[in-house]
Design brief:
- Chain B: This is Carbon-monoxide dehydrogenase medium subunit.
- The structure holds 3 protein chains of 3 kinds.
- By secondary structure, chain A is α+β, with helices and mostly antiparallel strands.
- Chain A has 5 helices and 5 strands; from the N terminus they run ββαβββαααα.
- Chain A is 33% helix and 15% strand.
- In chain A, strand 1 and strand 2 form a beta hairpin.
- The radius of gyration of chain B is 19 Å and the shape is globular.
- By secondary structure, chain C is α+β, with helices and mostly antiparallel strands.
- Chain C has 19 helices and 30 strands.
- In chain C, the strands form 8 sheets. A 7-stranded mixed sheet of chain C has the order 3-5-1-13-10-11-12, sandwiched between helices.
- Classes of the chains: A alpha+beta, B alpha+beta, C alpha+beta.
- Chains in contact: A-B, A-C, B-C.
- The interface between A and C is large, with 57 and 58 residues.
Chain lengths: 162, 287, 766
Amino acid sequence: MNKNITFTVNGEPVSLTVEPRWTLLRVLRDKMFLTGSKEGCGEGECGSCTVLVDGKPVNSCLMLAVAADGKTITTIEGLSRGTELHPLQKAFIEKGAIQCGFCTPGMVMTAKSLLDKNPDASAEEIRQEMAGNLCRCTGYTKIVEAVQEVAGQLKGGCHENG
Amino acid sequence: MKQFHYHEPKTVEEACLMMAELGDNAKLIAGGTDLVVQMNRGAKAPSHVVSVKTIQGLDSIIENEEGFRIGAATLLADISDHKGMQSKLPMLCSAARSIGSAQVRNLSTVGGNICNAAPSADMAPGLLALNAIVTIAGHENLRTLPLEEFFVGPGIVNLEKGEILTEIFVPTPTSGTQQVYLKHGPRRAMDCAVVGVAVTLLFEQPTGRCQQARIALGAVGPTPLRAKMTEKLLVGKTFNEFPLDRIAELAAQEASPISDVRASADYRCEMVSTFTKRAIVQLASFA
Amino acid sequence: MKMDRGQMALDQKQEIVGNSVPKIDASIKATGEALFAADIYLPGMLFGKILRSKHAHARILDIDTSKAEKLPGVKAVVTWRDAPDLKLGMYTDDWQFFAKEKVRYHGDIVAAVAATDIEIAEDALALIEVEYEELPGLFDPQDSLKLDAPLIHEDRPGNIAATRKIRKGDVEKAFASAEHIFEDTYQTQMVDHCPIETHASVAQCDSSGKTTIWSSSNAPFNNRFLLSRGLQLPMSKLKIVLNNVGGAFGGKQDLMTEPSCILLSKKSGRPVKIVVDREEEFTASTVRHPFTMTYKTAVDSKGKILARKIELIQDMGAYNDLGEGVLRYASLMAAGPYEIENVWLDAVGVYTNKQVGGVMRGVGVPQVSFAGESQLDRIAEKIGVDPYEIRMINALEEGSVTANGQKCVGIGFKETLKAAKKISGYEWKSKEKNRGFGIASMVYSSGAAGRHDYSSAVVKLNEDGTVVVLTGAPDVGQGVRTTLAQIAAQTLGVKYENCWVEAPNTDISPVDMYGANASRLTVVAGNAVMSAAMDAKRKILKRASEKWQVKEEDLQIVQGEIFHQGQSKSLGFFKDVVMEMHRPYGQTTIGTGDCITTSVPMDPETGQSEAVNIFVFATHVAEVEVDPETGLVKVLNIWAAHDVGKSINPVNIEGQIQGGVQMGLGFALTENIITRNGKTLNPTFLDCKMMTAADMPEIHPIIVEVPEPKGPFGARGVGEATCIPTAAAVANAVCSATGTRINSLPLSPEKVLSSLKMKSSGKKTN
């Protein structure tokens, strides 16, 4: 029943034997201890488990790990370089966009993919695109401001994309 | 989640054979955004899961003069972003965009949305109103079917044992056809439709008479459905002659919704009236 | 050089309190490094699952776990037989960790399993055979109150869980001569706290009998108290550790996982982790109590409120839990933030076979605020007084006496009204069709009301002059660790960056009784930290005065340097004095401090007492647009004016307000746990809808600062108030936009539309 999968996680090649019923989130957390991706609902409604698969955000709680075979995965752990934080992470800190922090990794990953695709996203576009990431603490205002801040930097061309 | 065997056929033939052999113990998986949730809740517990994601060519959109051939495993995100569809089938792009979140649309497929046969499936009304035709592969033969005949009941589609949906063909609408999909829910994102209404209208020029009208409704019956009697009220009339109140009333009569936690049947009927009227008014303003 | 720096320090003399410093834990949360309870993995750890009742009300005839125990991979199964046979609760001992004779709601715990894999634990649950005898269920408090109703708890006659009274003046006399009398009944629905992190814990019981629990709790000391009693473990053997908590809003002090985790670990000899899933969170965790509220109010022709007679019925759910406290808060605040000469209140909490109500942000006040503020608007409309004016006319102000007979001191209610009106551009009647403004206010207590509330703190100075604060105050995302670091840094005169506030660990932290509740931490834990910091500072200044032969009272510490009064050249570094305490004196400088509030229990017959610790006031203005064809309410703006006393971290407070409004809007419009016969029909984020980023309007936080004499640096707690008046403001705005008033929440499109239709057909709506 078990399957061998090989994929790239945060730049490192990984080979694992997985049960078909394991979701990608289950493998990232329980088998690789990449606990930055969170489970908030397990049903694709809250976005806390968001990771990038081949550069696109997906709910890792809905994707079977076997389906990640051959893919390139980026989790929150792969975003900062050593102690150098990604501009989005810096902006989240500076703008006060983090309260309990449980939704934050998913928020940052969705925001990253959004800005990769649309570097000068408007507030309205940010709100629409990030609707799949629920937050119960912030009311979203400061999260949107943080993403906008980075969008502004990208527009100004003074930011090296991480 | 219960343990299952996972299969990755490389061809449609292989997939069909597998499904034929495994029978009721098997479920097809594409994006998994519905099946994984169901399995997690224990609502479904297949012993075999057959992925269509490894089949070559099942996830592409091919555009030609006749129309768009959309592979069943095409991502909703790819439909939403497809330039050709944005220009010729914009209501399908907006319907795709209205589903779930960005993260979900990067997993969910159009085939999955259709085959789940949820009455509220957002892709269905638009595809019905555009007279989409589905291609169904069995391990020996291939058949095509108007989408309308594909839906049988809630969660039930016209697929025989060993058959899989491979493609959805959407004929290019006659030049000048207006189209819109309106979705109603309490939130601006992440909702299942309480009511979905897709309308296409073609006005003859210069008379301004409605030459063709198609209205499809979601979440208001056991399957997504066409409101064909209502459509007839429009044909042959100019916009100013449209009996809007009668149209609204008849559309609601063609619906047969249920009451559930999302809305009552009465409210759904009223929303069919409201959104059918709104869609027609909105389209007529472009004509 | 040194003189320049000293001068710089004095010149800049940056106030740390009042500055939006970045949060102490923001960067580890941004990187995903921050560990939450579910992120803990220990060697040999097992995964647990909980079996909950299949019925709303049933007798348990037998529990057979033998098949589950035999499943390979299962290491322990526990039921009531594995725990001490006793009932307990915060107010009333009516709840057993594991159901024994009866189950009283769908969430009651029947058994728990630990296995080597989560899937095995899930499979094992299905193998546990429970024989039930179904009993008739009670799902509406009105049914529970009927004389012939079955009893949910055999020893609770009438299914009454709690009562509360207020008697001030003579309402009947006032009604007899009043010009206008209004009587209306309001209802609010069941909603969940919805923290994005579900309840989780990891327990490790070792062979010495020591139990360590890593928990998602928002009240670890409260939990320790109950666990110690319920499991009959001495507190010294019970260590609760908090790392990071993914939101709580009052919901994470219910012991949803901890007793199961501990017993499974004890039985298996291995660490056990239990993380509840979202469906469990929606169906089995505590919720906000549904209330039915009847308000009879007399006013004179100018709008002065003469009397208010209020009846509250609280749907308690299956157990009392914290419900009695919720009823007390609701009763205390039910008359609203107004001075009313005659108040009569009867409140009753009633058992039903439904989810247990707990404390949820606002503790009963969102419910009464919706009722009282909706009615006040109806009164204003009827007698032709601007809703803003009617609030100004009746507002509590300096020296006013509240319904519980308490005199208001140092309060800023009218300031919130004025600020909200001015900044929002509020108009009684909007000029635009289908649009309207609504205004609503509230009063709340910062620090537990009607009972003693306390917290202690330790401030420990490291030999390099940096500071560690030990406190039991749990940071659940509201930022209390940051606030306390700011208070410690400001008090000591050191840099914020040099202060660390350790997360609670019940073995190490001094006690903080109620945790993240009742908007209490800034005030109660804040005062404790301030007093501990002053204690540590005194010790350092004493040493400094000896060292430099100057008077202690003439010394001050600024940005880590010690100055003699009037001199711009510093005497030396704070850190050097701290170091000297270490060597040669061999002492760690430790400051201790505590805070106990003066809040007094309410009189059981009259409700009169100084029950409120610190008064908190707020006013929200909502601007909405209603789609008359669908009933959909679109909120365009919310202005939220809060008297925070002193804003210790303005960005943090804005964030609290914005987040609280999100919760308030959900309560107003979309959130609703729908149950049928006690079973939840919509236990998902898809169908119990919280607002997404795409749904949220502009929120305009308005910070009002009227210093609170009892608060650290004049601060009051703000967190809970932020969600309280929102629903009434929205309901009032909807009424202003459409002319129809809806007396029950949520204002779903369907309800709004039907109300509009009734209005156009000329029928009276409720």
